[in-house]
Specification:
This protein has 396 residues and is α/β, with parallel strands linked by helices. The chain contains 12 helices and 18 strands. Helices cover 32% and strands 26% of the residues. A hairpin with a 5-residue loop joins β14 (328-333) and β15 (339-342). The longest helix has 20 residues, at 218-237. The relative contact order is 0.14.
């Protein structure tokens, strides 16, 4: 009997610890169908073959809504052959996604359906609003350029800061930007941040006992999956199969969006004093992230170490491993004055964090030279002056 009661309460959207409510809020008001999923529908119902990519951070990387969605598709459409790509890396938001998508989803032209999220890490990483739009739009435009028929679902997940914003009568800036880009490109979107906030306020469950964390509990993952399943049902099951439409890319929202963003190999750097190339960086003392360790890096640990990098493009940045000894990096572009960037983060004491930083993002579209120098200064929390460059970032 106890098991039956738990299952019954779960199925109507009420947690085991919350008081049952008469009216469970539906998923529909928290999603925008817009252009729908015509390409995915055709691939499933006619072509019988669908490639799905999941681009996001740790909430997408972990076991949860992603696995549930893949299993749901396979079970609901058993005659279709599915290929699933987990292109998720913990800690990364819209800026890193726009520079890594062509590498981490190498067959992007073959992807029919892309799930895309960045709202939680954009807040955690302190990504400013303009960079968010440029990153989000960069992902969409690169995906559409590779496959004009691709369907993209944009999702804004929840964290305590977003709940706090809603309680103050504000829409979180990350949600605004996700919806702005989704609306401009006529993409389906789900505001899961607002959905979770409203269902908590409706007394259906609590954050502390049920959802528990921005990395959701199994209960929270089910809340996410339920909304995603509703969107899939409304866009694929209800309408008849139609010919997929090709999207012609219009003028970008922001002229400096990361439309042509990509990694730029560290082989292009000209090493001077104090720098060395390590063929396989192995972290000591604390762990690192897969894909950013056991790979080549450029390393300098002494103040004054210099390198230069010729490049062509409108934006230049760097992907570093920011660990317990992360230093302060000084940079100069085209002979300009050196400016400083502190590489040490709030997570560096326990992780060689893959950290993505932009030096400039509104350069003339021509050839430039970047100069990097290790500063004599260091963050008071750091144990050293180390700079470990995994990749450069260029938007041509």
């Amino acid at each position: 009997m106890k098991l039956y009661l738990f299952i019954a309460s779960f199925l109507i959207g009420v947690s085991a610890t919350a008081q049952p409510v008469k009216n469970t809020l539906p998923n529909d008001p928290y999603m925008e169908i817009r252009g729908g999923l015509d390409n995915a529908r055709k691939a499933i119902l006619e072509d019988k073959e669908l490639t799905v990519a999941y681009l996001g951070g740790s909430i997408t990387f972990m076991e949860g809504w992603r696995n549930k969605t893949s299993k749901y598709l396979e079970e609901k459409y058993p005659q279709t052959r599915f290929t699933f790509i987990r292109a998720a890396v913990p800690s990364l938001g819209s800026l890193p996604h726009s520079f890594r998508i062509s590498t981490d989803v190498p067959d992007l032209a073959d992807v029919d359906l892309l799930f895309f999220e960045a709202a939680v890490n954009d807040r955690a990483n302190g990504t400013d609003s303009i960079t968010q739009v440029r990153g989000l739009e960069g992902v969409v435009r690169q995906a559409k350029a590779a496959n004009p028929k691709i369907n993209i679902i944009m999702m804004a997940f929840v964290d305590p800061d977003k709940i706090d914003d809603y309680h103050k009568g504000k829409v979180p800036v990350e949600v605004i930007n996700h919806e702005k880009v989704a609306g401009y490109y006529n993409l389906p979107s789900i505001n899961l941040a607002r959905l979770v906030n409203d269902r908590i306020d409706n007394g259906e469950f609590t954050w502390k006992d049920d959802f528990k964390d921005l990395h959701p509990s199994p209960f929270g993952q089910e809340v996410y999956f339920s909304a995603i399943k509703t969107l899939i049902s409304k866009t694929i099951d209800s309408p008849p199969a139609e010919a997929a439409t090709t999207t012609t890319l219009k003028k970008p929202l922001n002229p400096y969006s990361f439309t042509n963003a990509s990694y730029y190999d560290i082989k292009n750097a000209r090493l001077q004093k104090g720098w060395q190339r390590i063929e396989s960086f192995k972290p000591e003392g604390v762990k690192g992230r897969d894909g950013f360790i056991n790979v080549p890096v450029l390393e300098a640990t002494t103040p004054g170490a210099m390198l230069s990098l010729p490049f062509k493009g409108r934006a230049i940045g760097v992907n570093v491993n920011s660990g317990p000894d992360a230093g302060i990096l000084e940079y100069s572009i085209d002979g300009g004055p050196f400016q400083k960037l502190d590489l040490f983060t709030q997570w560096s004491h326990s992780l060689h964090l893959p950290w993505f930083l932009l030096f400039e993002s509104e350069l003339p579209a021509k050839s430039h030279v970047l100069r990097l120098r290790v500063s004599e200064e260091r963050n008071k929390g750091s144990k050293g002056n180390a700079v470990r460059v995994v990749r450069f970032l260029v938007n041509e």
